[in-house]
Amino acid sequence: MVKLDDYERIIGRERVEAIRELAAPLEGVAVQHINSAAVGGGVAEILKRLVPLMEDVGLVPRWDVLRGTNEFFSITKTFHNAFHGQPVEINEWMFETYREVSRQNFDLLDAAADFVILHDQQPLGLAELRPDHSGHWVWYCHIDPVDVDRRLWEFLKNYATRCDGAIYHLYEYVKELGKRVYVMPPAIDPLSEKNREVDEEERRTVLERLEVPGDLPLVVQVSRFDRLKDPMGVIRSFRMVREQVPCRLVLAGGGAGDDPEGSQVLEEVRQEADGDPGIMILELSPTADLEINVLQRTAAVVVQKSVREGFGLTVTEAMWKGRPLVAAPVGGIRIQVLHEETGLAASGDEAVAGAVVRMLRNPELAASMGRAGREMVRRNFIIPVYLERWIGMLAAERRLTC
Ligand code: UDP
What we know:
- The chain is 44% helix and 14% strand.
- By secondary structure, it is an alpha/beta fold.
- The chain has 2 domains: 4-187 and 382-401, Rossmann fold; 200-380, Glycogen Phosphorylase B (Rossmann fold).
- It binds uridine-5'-diphosphate.
- Residues 42, 194, 222-224, 253-255, 284, 292, 310-314, 317 line the site of uridine-5'-diphosphate (UDP).
């Protein structure tokens, strides 16, 4: 099981000790996390690493997963889309089913928990129990709620206001609830398969398996095949870049099989590429962590040309690997890619192409931005630092209510 000491070589002995010291007054404090999936998705990914680390510093964490029906999850998927401002139909039957499933999960609740953390909107209905529970309740909103559907928000707000506070990834995502507010962006785990160091032999083996040639510099975007990631725009930009600097494009992503829209976008991307030998479209399996690691590590430039982004963990992952970034300044990318410092911010096809050319022609500039990016991630967006923020939040919440 992962231990805080494992991160000593990344954050230093002193920081590890400081985190332990900060956690000492919380020894024995019981924290119950409730989310809606044991695997798959960013929240599960984070909890998998955070829970053992919390335990390692003396807290008593527990992680429970909401039991939902297919109907419930298709409703919360609709809610998810409505959070992103997509025009979806929300009706009373959905609310009733949500309430019913929430009530069927009341027994999940640990009556003795000092903290109950509800991750995202799926388990938020449990907040109905808040008045009968003596612990602190916090809702953690892991997505961008700025354009949330008004009717849905009126419904969920009733639950969110029963909590003592809420956590968001960015300041601009904060919703007015009249409750305490915490801002905690997510983090990556530098020791996971997706981010760990890879030696040269292993890197080559993986590239061979993916049939990625090593003759030209690679421009890489790793993302689900989703229009909001603008894969077509990446292809258009790449074609402009290639006229000036020889290079190849890799568009890598997965999850298209069970997502009809994903398959459709993938098909459109293939048509746009039109068999161009300079463009590699890699459909990855959901377990292709090492492949993503290697592609990000091998990239001469990593692009993230998103139209919208919650936080943008692919950016964090690439920056951790010291890669130069050209990314659109949207959502959480804005606090990661600081223009001319930790990467280049660019949105339109031509602007992205120009920035990529600049990086490819200036390896020193690219390397120095890559170094700055890695340092920014090391200081802000890795799991032991995230743990430290959690401890700070839990301690503040206790102090404020004592
Ligand atoms: N990812 C993956 N396989 C893929 C595409 C993406 O494992 O085919 C991972 C990626 O490495 C990152 C996460 O999924 O860890 C995507 O998070 P991000 O915040 O970038 O975007 P989202 O998909 O949540 O919009």
